[in-house]
Amino acid sequence: MSADTPISRRLNNVKHIILVLSGKGGVGKSSVSTQLALSLYASAPTARVGILDVDLTGPSIPRMLGVDGHPVHQSTDGWVPGDSVVWRGPKKNAMIRQFLSDVRWGELDYLVIDTPPGTSDEHLSLLEHLAPVHDRLSSVVVTTPQAVALADAIKGVSFTRAVNLPVLGVIENMSGYACPCCGEITNVFSKGGGKSMAEREKVHFLGSLPIDTQLVELLDSAQPQPQPTTTSDSRPLESSYSGQEQVSATDVTPVTQLNTLSGTGSETNGHTTSTHAPTRTFQVLERYRQTPTWAAFKPMAEYIIEKLR
Predict the structure, then answer these.
(1) In 39, 65, 83, 93, which residue has its Cα 20 to 30 A from 58's Cα atom?
(2) For 20-53, how does the pLDDT look when each residue is reduced to its tens digit (9 = 90+)?
(3) Between helices 292-308 and 29-42, what is the axis angle to 10°?
(4) Would you state the torsion angle of the CA atoms of residues 112, 118, 120, 125, taken in this order, to the nearest 10 degrees?
(5) What is the secondary structure of 106-121 as a DSSP string?
(6) 9, 108, 6, 8: which is closest to 52 by C-alpha?
(7) Are strands 78-80 and 73-75 parallel, antiparallel or unpaired?
(8) Which residue ranges are recorded for the region named Disordered (predicted)?
(9) Do 35 and 51 touch, CB atoms closer than 8 A?
(10) Environment class of residue 275 by beta-carbon count within 10 Å: exposed (0-12), middle (13-18) or buried (19+)?
(11) Residue 1: inside a domain, yes or no?
(12) Going by C-beta distance under 8 Å and a sequence separation of 6 or more, which residues neighbour residue 217?
Protein backbone atom coordinates (compact mmCIF):
# COMPACT_ATOMS: atom_id res chain seq x y z
CA MET A 1 0.00 0.00 0.00
CA SER A 2 1.39 3.45 -0.93
CA ALA A 3 2.47 5.77 1.86
CA ASP A 4 0.24 8.78 2.51
CA THR A 5 2.48 11.77 1.77
CA PRO A 6 1.87 15.27 0.37
CA ILE A 7 3.25 14.11 -2.98
CA SER A 8 1.13 10.96 -3.10
CA ARG A 9 -1.95 13.06 -2.32
CA ARG A 10 -1.13 15.57 -5.04
CA LEU A 11 -0.54 12.79 -7.57
CA ASN A 12 -3.46 10.70 -6.40
CA ASN A 13 -5.41 11.38 -9.60
CA VAL A 14 -2.47 10.97 -11.99
CA LYS A 15 -2.76 7.55 -13.63
CA HIS A 16 0.66 7.22 -15.30
CA ILE A 17 3.97 9.04 -14.80
CA ILE A 18 6.53 8.70 -17.62
CA LEU A 19 10.14 9.79 -17.08
CA VAL A 20 12.06 10.65 -20.24
CA LEU A 21 15.76 9.81 -19.76
CA SER A 22 18.96 10.17 -21.74
CA GLY A 23 22.50 9.09 -20.99
CA LYS A 24 24.00 12.31 -22.36
CA GLY A 25 22.96 15.79 -23.40
CA GLY A 26 22.27 16.88 -26.95
CA VAL A 27 20.25 13.85 -28.05
CA GLY A 28 16.95 15.74 -28.26
CA LYS A 29 15.40 14.47 -25.05
CA SER A 30 13.31 17.58 -24.48
CA SER A 31 11.95 17.56 -28.03
CA VAL A 32 11.07 13.87 -27.60
CA SER A 33 9.34 14.70 -24.29
CA THR A 34 7.33 17.38 -26.07
CA GLN A 35 6.41 15.05 -28.93
CA LEU A 36 5.43 12.33 -26.47
CA ALA A 37 3.15 14.68 -24.57
CA LEU A 38 1.57 16.04 -27.75
CA SER A 39 1.12 12.55 -29.22
CA LEU A 40 -0.50 11.25 -26.03
CA TYR A 41 -2.77 14.28 -25.96
CA ALA A 42 -3.75 13.70 -29.59
CA SER A 43 -4.50 10.02 -28.91
CA ALA A 44 -8.02 10.74 -27.68
CA PRO A 45 -10.29 13.79 -27.37
CA THR A 46 -10.54 13.27 -23.61
CA ALA A 47 -6.86 12.57 -22.92
CA ARG A 48 -5.48 14.69 -20.07
CA VAL A 49 -1.73 15.14 -20.25
CA GLY A 50 0.64 17.14 -18.06
CA ILE A 51 4.32 17.82 -18.61
CA LEU A 52 6.98 18.74 -16.05
CA ASP A 53 10.51 19.93 -16.79
CA VAL A 54 12.96 19.07 -13.99
CA ASP A 55 16.04 19.95 -16.02
CA LEU A 56 16.54 22.84 -13.63
CA THR A 57 19.77 24.13 -15.16
CA GLY A 58 18.46 24.17 -18.72
CA PRO A 59 14.66 23.95 -18.99
CA SER A 60 13.36 23.79 -22.57
CA ILE A 61 9.75 22.63 -22.32
CA PRO A 62 8.17 26.06 -21.61
CA ARG A 63 9.76 27.49 -24.75
CA MET A 64 8.88 24.50 -26.93
CA LEU A 65 5.22 24.59 -25.92
CA GLY A 66 4.88 28.35 -26.05
CA VAL A 67 4.21 28.79 -22.33
CA ASP A 68 7.47 30.58 -21.52
CA GLY A 69 6.94 33.77 -19.56
CA HIS A 70 3.91 32.75 -17.50
CA PRO A 71 4.04 34.09 -13.94
CA VAL A 72 3.96 32.02 -10.78
CA HIS A 73 0.62 32.06 -8.96
CA GLN A 74 0.26 31.34 -5.27
CA SER A 75 -2.89 30.25 -3.50
CA THR A 76 -3.82 28.73 -0.20
CA ASP A 77 -3.83 25.41 -2.04
CA GLY A 78 -0.31 25.51 -3.45
CA TRP A 79 1.90 26.86 -6.20
CA VAL A 80 1.40 27.02 -9.95
CA PRO A 81 4.90 27.44 -11.42
CA GLY A 82 5.63 28.89 -14.83
CA ASP A 83 9.41 29.03 -14.98
CA SER A 84 12.13 26.83 -13.54
CA VAL A 85 14.79 28.29 -11.25
CA VAL A 86 18.51 27.59 -11.54
CA TRP A 87 19.70 26.25 -8.18
CA ARG A 88 22.28 23.79 -6.89
CA GLY A 89 22.48 20.91 -4.44
CA PRO A 90 19.78 20.81 -1.76
CA LYS A 91 17.82 23.61 -3.44
CA LYS A 92 17.37 21.45 -6.54
CA ASN A 93 15.95 18.73 -4.35
CA ALA A 94 13.65 21.24 -2.65
CA MET A 95 12.45 22.61 -6.00
CA ILE A 96 11.63 19.14 -7.31
CA ARG A 97 9.77 18.34 -4.11
CA GLN A 98 7.84 21.59 -4.41
CA PHE A 99 6.88 20.90 -8.03
CA LEU A 100 5.47 17.53 -7.00
CA SER A 101 3.90 18.32 -3.63
CA ASP A 102 2.65 21.90 -3.95
CA VAL A 103 1.38 22.04 -7.53
CA ARG A 104 -2.28 21.18 -8.10
CA TRP A 105 -1.86 18.57 -10.84
CA GLY A 106 -5.53 17.66 -10.91
CA GLU A 107 -6.74 14.61 -12.82
CA LEU A 108 -4.29 13.43 -15.48
CA ASP A 109 -4.04 10.33 -17.62
CA TYR A 110 -0.33 10.93 -18.20
CA LEU A 111 2.33 13.10 -16.59
CA VAL A 112 5.45 13.30 -18.76
CA ILE A 113 8.59 14.34 -16.86
CA ASP A 114 11.54 15.69 -18.83
CA THR A 115 14.66 14.90 -16.80
CA PRO A 116 18.23 16.23 -17.08
CA PRO A 117 20.79 14.20 -19.05
CA GLY A 118 22.71 11.50 -17.24
CA THR A 119 21.91 10.07 -13.81
CA SER A 120 22.43 13.02 -11.50
CA ASP A 121 21.05 14.29 -8.21
CA GLU A 122 17.82 15.33 -9.89
CA HIS A 123 17.06 11.75 -10.92
CA LEU A 124 17.74 10.35 -7.47
CA SER A 125 15.71 13.10 -5.79
CA LEU A 126 12.86 12.62 -8.25
CA LEU A 127 12.67 8.87 -7.70
CA GLU A 128 12.93 9.31 -3.94
CA HIS A 129 10.01 11.74 -3.92
CA LEU A 130 7.99 9.53 -6.28
CA ALA A 131 8.55 6.38 -4.22
CA PRO A 132 4.97 6.43 -2.82
CA VAL A 133 3.62 6.22 -6.40
CA HIS A 134 6.31 3.91 -7.78
CA ASP A 135 3.72 1.52 -9.19
CA ARG A 136 2.65 4.24 -11.64
CA LEU A 137 6.16 5.05 -12.87
CA SER A 138 7.72 4.08 -16.19
CA SER A 139 10.41 5.51 -18.45
CA VAL A 140 11.54 6.11 -22.02
CA VAL A 141 15.25 6.21 -22.91
CA VAL A 142 16.36 8.55 -25.72
CA THR A 143 19.56 8.08 -27.71
CA THR A 144 21.07 8.92 -31.10
CA PRO A 145 22.83 6.51 -33.51
CA GLN A 146 26.36 7.63 -32.55
CA ALA A 147 28.48 5.19 -30.57
CA VAL A 148 29.14 7.69 -27.76
CA ALA A 149 25.43 8.33 -27.24
CA LEU A 150 24.66 4.61 -27.35
CA ALA A 151 27.28 3.88 -24.68
CA ASP A 152 25.70 6.47 -22.40
CA ALA A 153 22.22 5.17 -23.18
CA ILE A 154 23.30 1.73 -21.98
CA LYS A 155 24.29 3.35 -18.69
CA GLY A 156 20.86 4.93 -18.56
CA VAL A 157 19.19 1.54 -19.00
CA SER A 158 21.47 0.16 -16.30
CA PHE A 159 20.32 2.96 -14.01
CA THR A 160 16.66 2.04 -14.53
CA ARG A 161 17.43 -1.53 -13.50
CA ALA A 162 19.29 -0.38 -10.41
CA VAL A 163 16.31 1.67 -9.23
CA ASN A 164 13.67 -0.80 -10.46
CA LEU A 165 12.17 1.66 -12.97
CA PRO A 166 10.26 0.00 -15.83
CA VAL A 167 11.42 0.93 -19.35
CA LEU A 168 8.71 1.30 -21.98
CA GLY A 169 11.32 1.41 -24.70
CA VAL A 170 14.21 3.13 -26.44
CA ILE A 171 13.81 5.90 -29.03
CA GLU A 172 16.59 6.56 -31.54
CA ASN A 173 16.43 10.28 -32.26
CA MET A 174 18.17 12.13 -35.13
CA SER A 175 18.10 8.96 -37.19
CA GLY A 176 18.47 10.39 -40.67
CA TYR A 177 17.35 13.70 -42.17
CA ALA A 178 13.82 14.36 -43.40
CA CYS A 179 13.88 16.39 -46.61
CA PRO A 180 11.52 19.38 -46.17
CA CYS A 181 10.53 19.16 -49.85
CA CYS A 182 9.78 15.48 -50.44
CA GLY A 183 9.96 13.98 -46.93
CA GLU A 184 12.55 11.38 -47.96
CA ILE A 185 14.81 10.21 -45.11
CA THR A 186 18.57 10.41 -45.75
CA ASN A 187 21.06 8.87 -43.33
CA VAL A 188 23.34 11.40 -41.63
CA PHE A 189 24.84 9.37 -38.82
CA SER A 190 25.16 5.61 -38.55
CA LYS A 191 21.92 3.67 -38.72
CA GLY A 192 20.27 1.08 -36.47
CA GLY A 193 22.43 1.59 -33.39
CA GLY A 194 19.48 2.26 -31.13
CA LYS A 195 17.66 -0.88 -32.22
CA SER A 196 20.77 -3.04 -31.79
CA MET A 197 21.40 -1.58 -28.35
CA ALA A 198 17.81 -2.21 -27.29
CA GLU A 199 18.04 -5.82 -28.44
CA ARG A 200 21.28 -6.36 -26.52
CA GLU A 201 19.82 -4.80 -23.38
CA LYS A 202 16.56 -6.74 -23.84
CA VAL A 203 14.35 -3.65 -23.83
CA HIS A 204 11.71 -2.71 -26.39
CA PHE A 205 12.74 -0.53 -29.33
CA LEU A 206 10.02 2.07 -29.86
CA GLY A 207 11.37 3.39 -33.15
CA SER A 208 13.46 6.03 -34.89
CA LEU A 209 12.89 9.75 -35.40
CA PRO A 210 14.56 11.78 -38.17
CA ILE A 211 16.04 15.26 -37.99
CA ASP A 212 12.99 17.28 -38.98
CA THR A 213 13.48 20.95 -39.89
CA GLN A 214 9.73 21.55 -39.71
CA LEU A 215 9.66 20.30 -36.12
CA VAL A 216 12.69 22.41 -35.21
CA GLU A 217 11.02 25.51 -36.64
CA LEU A 218 7.79 24.69 -34.81
CA LEU A 219 9.40 24.24 -31.39
CA ASP A 220 11.61 27.31 -31.84
CA SER A 221 8.74 29.58 -32.86
CA ALA A 222 5.99 28.42 -30.48
CA GLN A 223 4.17 31.54 -29.31
CA PRO A 224 3.15 32.13 -25.69
CA GLN A 225 -0.51 31.31 -25.10
CA PRO A 226 -2.80 34.04 -23.73
CA GLN A 227 -3.51 33.97 -20.02
CA PRO A 228 -7.03 32.88 -19.00
CA THR A 229 -9.35 35.87 -18.90
CA THR A 230 -11.18 37.05 -15.82
CA THR A 231 -14.79 38.15 -15.47
CA SER A 232 -16.50 40.81 -13.41
CA ASP A 233 -17.08 38.39 -10.54
CA SER A 234 -13.47 37.31 -10.18
CA ARG A 235 -10.39 39.38 -9.32
CA PRO A 236 -7.24 39.19 -11.49
CA LEU A 237 -4.74 36.62 -10.35
CA GLU A 238 -1.93 37.95 -8.22
CA SER A 239 1.56 36.73 -9.09
CA SER A 240 4.81 36.83 -7.19
CA TYR A 241 8.06 34.96 -7.40
CA SER A 242 8.72 35.68 -3.72
CA GLY A 243 5.51 34.00 -2.64
CA GLN A 244 4.41 36.84 -0.36
CA GLU A 245 1.18 37.89 -2.08
CA GLN A 246 -1.99 36.17 -0.95
CA VAL A 247 -4.85 35.13 -3.22
CA SER A 248 -8.13 33.52 -2.35
CA ALA A 249 -8.72 29.96 -3.55
CA THR A 250 -11.66 31.07 -5.69
CA ASP A 251 -9.35 33.26 -7.80
CA VAL A 252 -6.78 30.62 -8.64
CA THR A 253 -6.52 29.00 -12.04
CA PRO A 254 -5.76 25.29 -11.58
CA VAL A 255 -2.45 24.04 -12.91
CA THR A 256 -4.31 21.95 -15.46
CA GLN A 257 -5.18 25.19 -17.26
CA LEU A 258 -1.64 26.54 -17.20
CA ASN A 259 0.86 23.81 -17.91
CA THR A 260 -1.09 20.76 -18.98
CA LEU A 261 -2.02 20.21 -22.59
CA SER A 262 -5.75 19.70 -22.14
CA GLY A 263 -6.47 22.76 -20.04
CA THR A 264 -9.59 21.13 -18.62
CA GLY A 265 -8.55 20.03 -15.18
CA SER A 266 -10.91 19.24 -12.35
CA GLU A 267 -11.01 20.68 -8.88
CA THR A 268 -9.17 19.16 -5.93
CA ASN A 269 -9.13 19.41 -2.17
CA GLY A 270 -12.61 20.85 -1.91
CA HIS A 271 -11.80 24.31 -3.31
CA THR A 272 -13.94 26.01 -5.90
CA THR A 273 -12.24 27.49 -8.95
CA SER A 274 -13.69 29.95 -11.43
CA THR A 275 -15.09 28.15 -14.48
CA HIS A 276 -15.04 31.26 -16.68
CA ALA A 277 -11.50 30.68 -17.98
CA PRO A 278 -11.58 29.39 -21.58
CA THR A 279 -10.27 25.98 -22.50
CA ARG A 280 -6.64 26.22 -23.58
CA THR A 281 -6.03 25.03 -27.14
CA PHE A 282 -2.44 24.55 -28.22
CA GLN A 283 -1.99 25.58 -31.83
CA VAL A 284 1.37 23.83 -31.67
CA LEU A 285 -0.49 20.50 -31.72
CA GLU A 286 -2.14 21.18 -35.08
CA ARG A 287 1.17 22.28 -36.56
CA TYR A 288 2.91 19.26 -35.07
CA ARG A 289 0.51 16.95 -36.89
CA GLN A 290 1.77 18.39 -40.18
CA THR A 291 5.43 17.47 -39.54
CA PRO A 292 7.11 14.29 -40.83
CA THR A 293 7.92 13.17 -37.29
CA TRP A 294 4.23 13.05 -36.35
CA ALA A 295 3.73 9.96 -38.51
CA ALA A 296 6.86 8.38 -37.01
CA PHE A 297 5.92 9.11 -33.41
CA LYS A 298 2.24 8.17 -33.60
CA PRO A 299 2.81 4.36 -33.46
CA MET A 300 5.22 4.85 -30.54
CA ALA A 301 2.56 6.71 -28.58
CA GLU A 302 -0.02 4.06 -29.45
CA TYR A 303 2.31 1.33 -28.17
CA ILE A 304 2.90 3.23 -24.92
CA ILE A 305 -0.82 3.76 -24.39
CA GLU A 306 -1.54 0.07 -24.95
CA LYS A 307 1.37 -0.98 -22.72
CA LEU A 308 0.13 1.16 -19.83
CA ARG A 309 -3.45 -0.08 -19.94
Answers:
(1) 39
(2) 999 888 898 999 999 999 999 988 778 899 999 9
(3) 70
(4) 20
(5) -SEEEEEEEPPSSS-H
(6) 108
(7) antiparallel
(8) 222-281
(9) no
(10) exposed
(11) no
(12) none
